Amino acid sequence: MNTRRDTGANALEELTEEECLQLVGPGGVGRVAFGGVAGPTVFPVNYKLVDGRVVFRIRKGGTMDESLQSGIDDLEVKIAFQVDHIDEEMRDGWSVLIQGPAHHVTETELRATSADVDSWAGDDRDHYVRLTPQQVTGRRINRL
Question: Is the pTM of this model over 0.70?
Answer without folding.
Answer: yes
